[in-house]
Every structure is written in C-alpha cells, then in structure tokens.
C-alpha cells in the first residue's frame, strides 16, 4: 500500500509538472525523474538465490527540481522499504532524504539543506549519489560558493553526512560528526596575457576539511587498563596544480590527513597521505594517458566505528582506482576495489586510429587501444606493543601502526590488467570489436579470501545494421582462468554469449547466457525494452551470478538472485 501511494503521488507530480513548464519556461523551469527497479524473486538452491518473504523487492526514487534566475529548489523521495538484494540492512526505509533551497545572485550562491560537493579529485571530500552501489553520502547543512573575481572561486560548507535510514528518518539518519571545509581555485593564467595568447591554462587549488566527532570509550589492552583517547577533530588538506597547454594536460595533487584512529585501520594513530601525478596527450587520431598514485592510510569516514566494515555510506573522501572500468561481462567479472590501507597504483593507455585508406586503416579506418594497470601494496614495517593484540589488519591499536618508505613496494600485488582492443568497420553495415585481456586479481586482498586469480579473457563483438530500423548486435566471450580455480567459490572458466536486436524507434530485445564450465551452471537473461520520448520500460527474467558491482574503485557485493525484473525510468 505504501508503494502504491508513493508511485501514484510521483505520477501525479510528473503530470502536473509538464503544463507548468509549458506555461512560462522563461521564469520557472521544472525538471525531475522517476526511477523504479523491481525484482520478483525466486529461490534457486543451485546458485544460492534466497527465498524472500516479500513478493517483490524494489528501489524506487522520485525527484523534482525547480530552477529560476535567483532561486533553485528540489527534493527527492525514496521508497526502499524492501530493497534489492545486496544493500546494507540500514539501507531500508522510505521518506524524503534530500531537500534543498539555493539562492543565486551575481557571483554568489548559497545552499541550505542537502547538497553534494567535491574538492579537487575527491581525496579529502567527495559526496555523491551512485544508486547502483547504494551510495548517497550527501551533507545536510549549508554551502556558499563565491566568485570574487573571474579567476577565483571560493567555497565553504558545513553539515552532517547522511547514512541511510539508520534512525528512521532523514534528519535522524545522519552520522553524529560535523563536517566543515573550504576550497579555493585560482586560474593563474588569467594573470598573464602571454599565457592567454598561447592558450595555456594553469589552475591552482587548495582545500581544507575538518571532521568533529566526540570521544568514546575503548579499552585495548589485555589487562583492561589502556584506554584510547580519540582526537575530536581530524583535519585534512589538499593542494593541486593543473596545466593545460597545447595537446597536453598535466595534474599533480597531494593530500594529507591528521591522526584518525578508526575501526577501519585498527585504531592506529598514523597520519594519512595520498599523492597523484597524471598526464595526458591528445590530438586527432591519437591519445595517451599516464597516471601514478600512492595512498597510505587515507580512508576518511564521518563515523569512527561502523556496524559493518563493508558499507560505503560513511566515506567523506574518495580514492579513485587507476584501473580500467570494463563493460563486457567477463572482463568485469573481477573488478578492483581501492585498498584504503594503502597502495601504489599505475595506469597507462594509448589509443591510435589508423587513417582511412591506409594499409592498416582500410576503407573506414582502424582504432586500436592498449591499456595497462598495476596496483601493488606499499611497504609496511609493523609496530608492536606489549600487552596489546593486533587488530584485523595486523596493526596494534594505540600505536602509529607501521612505518612506510615512500617509494618501496610491499610484498603483495593487488591487481594487474593488460588489455588490447581493436575496433574495425568492414562495411557500411558491419562493425567488429575484438579484445584480449590478461588479468591478475588478488582475491584475498580485495575480498578477504581466495588467493591470486590469473586469467585470459577473449571478447568478440559484432554489430550489423540491416536498415535504418533494424540492428543486430552479438557478443561472444571466454574467460580462461589459468590459475586460482575454485569451483566451490565459483571461480572457474566461463563462456558468455549475447544477442541484442534493436527495432527503432521503440523496441530492443536481448538474450544472454553466461555458462560456468566447471560447475555446469547457466546464468541466463532475457529482456524486452520499450523506450519512447522520456519513458523507458524494461521487463525481463534473469538468473544472476553473485559478484561485485564496482564503479571508480568503490564496490558493493551483490548476492545471487533469480526472478522477474522490471525497470522504469521517466525524465521530465
């Protein structure tokens, strides 16, 4: 009944919004969206799919935003009483978790309510929403953005961070700590006429964030005498410099965090650090990217002690993974999640297009892309103290945990990926994509168990356009797990096939099957998608393998499931 009332209200809201926009879109513009993902679950002992007591599970969201010259406002309604599989227990709930009012005048912008913000690359602050991962760590408070000059932007903010519905409502579902921060960005090239004439852009940025959290009682010694004193204020700062000149773009960034003992780092008092250097070059037909990052004890959360260490809700910052995000099913089977304890990460990518009518380009040209990424542990000299046992990560609570030489690697390779992709159009109607991937995945480092997996992955994708309305796309994939096979954990060789028929302008039919060779299990999926104007409806039936869903180095474990799936999206 709650869900029916919720969807009915959203529908009425969307219908009412359309004529308002049409009446006078020069003064007030109304926009929004409705998204509802539904699973009617079925039990399946063979793949470990649960038998839920609810008839249907759903994640449903509705948004409406009003914008004008001086005032913006908006809110989001969520119905998550019975969420889809794999979300944290506190994720369940319903209500209005996001509402804001924004005032704008000349170079000043003031926001009250919920908001998202990112300073630099997010090393000390990134709040955002990613529904597929169950992330919405918005701040509830106030933010000011001021541009005193054309070459300067200043931001200041303060608030408390959302953590699902753990106390039953938007204003109670917050972590206790206060987050405050400021950021300034200066376009230095605006100071020098010669830089402007040569199309050279130089930007300097600096940020500061502070977390204020009360003390708590925690005894760590064997005899019950040693109590930890937690810092009430944990501060972090970030400096960065970006240079764009000609075809080059170079970014250097460094961030540091003060002592921040927490459950995630075994309550050690070591400072946190992260340094990054990224350079890219691009011109017509060619692009090059080279990146390196070292992080050390840089997990920054708004809550010192967590119900579960797997939740993503309480992160103040974000440490991107320097690994390629794959879209093919088997290539994305083992994605990498950033290690918050520390890592060295490297990535290089070269893309080149052979010109049309050349020997390798042929009639339509040929595009080749090569990507390599490697993630390794940092060296750690562990500290010990008599009378105190190490925590789950091996660090002794109450100490500085470990020492670490900056350029020295540790003993563990976390992840490595080398892949080559080729895109070739043979005729005006037929295009072929090929990919080879060699991957090392340290399952113990990422998931806590399983050892090192080494695999070779082969992908072929073809697309044929019969006419202006009919297009057929097919995929064939093979994962050869050369070492680390464990049938009980589902780690083995796999083949995958997909057929997708697009019938313009409204319909798309998709069937796919992933077959696990070692345990002889099919993971099939069939769906029909209807899209018209701002509406998109997909109905399907699927048997889904358990695994990780990742984006940008942040991952969520998704258990196996089976059943009817329905997905509806509407934007107005």
Task: Give a short overview.
With 572 residues, this protein is mainly beta. It is built from 3 helices and 30 strands.
Keywords:
disordered N terminus, two-stranded antiparallel ribbon, globular, mainly beta, 572 residues, 3 helices, 24-stranded antiparallel β-barrel
- Helix content class: under 10%
| Alpha-carbon distance between the two ends | 25 Å
Largest sheet: 24 strands, antiparallel, barrel
Number of E strands: 30
Write down the overall mean pLDDT.
91
Q: Low-confidence spans: pLDDT under 50, at least 5 residues?
A: 3-10, 12-23
Share in β-strands: over 45%
Which structural class fits the helix and strand makeup? mainly beta
Radius of gyration: 26 Å
Shape descriptor reads: globular
Layout of strands and helices, then pairs:
Layout: H1 2-23, E1 29-41, E2 57-67, E3 71-80, E4 93-105, E5 108-115, E6 129-130, E7 135-136, E8 139-149, E9 152-161, E10 178-187, H2 193-197, E11 200-212, E12 233-245, E13 248-257, E14 272-283, E15 286-296, E16 342-354, E17 366-378, E18 381-382, E19 402-403, E20 409-425, E21 430-442, H3 443-447, E22 452-465, E23 470-483, E24 494-503, E25 507-516, E26 521-532, E27 535-544, E28 547-551, E29 554-558, E30 561-571
Antiparallel strand pairs: 1-2, 1-30, 2-3, 3-4, 4-5, 5-8, 6-7, 8-9, 9-10, 10-11, 11-12, 12-13, 13-14, 14-15, 15-16, 16-17, 17-20, 18-19, 20-21, 21-22, 22-23, 23-24, 24-25, 25-26, 26-27, 27-30, 28-29
């Amino acid at each position: 009944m709650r869900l029916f009332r919720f969807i009915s209200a959203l529908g009425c809201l969307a219908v009412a919004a359309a004529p308002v926009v049409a009446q006078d879109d020069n003064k007030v513009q109304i926009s929004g969206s409705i998204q509802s993902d539904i699973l009617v679950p079925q039990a399946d002992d063979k793949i470990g799919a649960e038998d839920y007591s609810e008839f249907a599970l759903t994640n449903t969201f509705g948004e409406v935003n009003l914008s004008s010259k001086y005032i913006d406002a908006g809110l989001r309604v969520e119905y998550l009483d019975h969420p889809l599989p794999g979300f944290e227990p506190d994720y369940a709930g319903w209500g209005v978790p996001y509402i804001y009012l924004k005032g704008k005048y000349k170079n000043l912008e003031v926001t009250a309510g919920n908001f998202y913000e990112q300073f630099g690359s997010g090393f000390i602050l990134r709040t955002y929403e990613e529904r597929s991962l169950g992330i919405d760590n918005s701040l509830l408070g106030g933010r000011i953005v001021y541009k005193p000059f054309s070459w300067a932007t200043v931001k200041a903010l303060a608030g408390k961070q959302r953590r699902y519905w753990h106390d039953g409502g938007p204003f109670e579902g917050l972590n206790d700590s206060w987050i405050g921060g400021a950021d300034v960005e200066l376009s230095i090239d605006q100071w020098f006429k010669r830089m402007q004439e040569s199309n050279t852009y130089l930007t300097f940025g600096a940020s500061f964030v502070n977390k204020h959290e009360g003390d708590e009682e925690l005894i760590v010694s064997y005899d019950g005498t040693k109590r930890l004193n937690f810092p009430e204020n944990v501060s972090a700062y970030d400096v960065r410099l970006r240079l764009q000149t000609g075809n080059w773009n170079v970014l250097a960034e460094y961030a540091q965090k003060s002592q921040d003992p927490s459950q995630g780092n075994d309550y050690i008092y070591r400072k946190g650090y992260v340094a990054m250097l990224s350079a890219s070059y691009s011109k017509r037909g060619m692009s090059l990217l080279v990146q390196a990052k070292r992080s050390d004890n840089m997990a920054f959360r708004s809550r010192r002690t967590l119900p579960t260490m797997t939740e993503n809700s309480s992160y103040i910052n974000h440490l991107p993974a320097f690994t390629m995000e794959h879209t093919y099913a088997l290539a994305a089977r083992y994605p990498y999640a950033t290690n918050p304890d520390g890592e060295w990460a490297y990535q290089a990518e070269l893309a080149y297009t052979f010109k049309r009518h050349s020997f390798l380009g042929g009639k339509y040209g040929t595009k080749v892309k090569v990507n390599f990424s490697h993630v390794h542990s940092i060296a750690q000299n562990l500290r010990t103290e008599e009378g105190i046992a190490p925590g789950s990560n091996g660090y002794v609570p109450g100490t500085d945990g470990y020492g670490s030489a900056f350029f020295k690697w540790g003993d563990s390779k976390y992840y490595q990926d080398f892949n080559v992709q080729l895109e070739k159009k043979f005729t005006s109607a037929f295009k072929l994509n090929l990919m080879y991937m060699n991957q090392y995945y340290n399952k113990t480092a990422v998931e806590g168990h399983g050892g090192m997996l080494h695999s070779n992955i082969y992908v072929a994708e073809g697309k044929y356009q019969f006419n202006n309305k009919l297009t057929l796309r097919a995929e064939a994939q093979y994962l050869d797990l050369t070492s680390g096979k464990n049938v009980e954990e589902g780690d083995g060789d796999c083949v995958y096939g997909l057929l997708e028929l697009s019938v313009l302008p409204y319909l798309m039919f998709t069937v796919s099957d992933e077959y696990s060779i070692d345990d002889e299990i099919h993971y099939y999926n069939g769906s029909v998608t209807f899209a018209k104007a701002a509406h998109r409806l997909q109905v399907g039936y699927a048997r889904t393998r358990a695994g990780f869903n990742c984006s940008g180095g942040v991952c969520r474990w998704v258990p196996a499931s089976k059943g009817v799936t329905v997905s509806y999206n509407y934007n107005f």
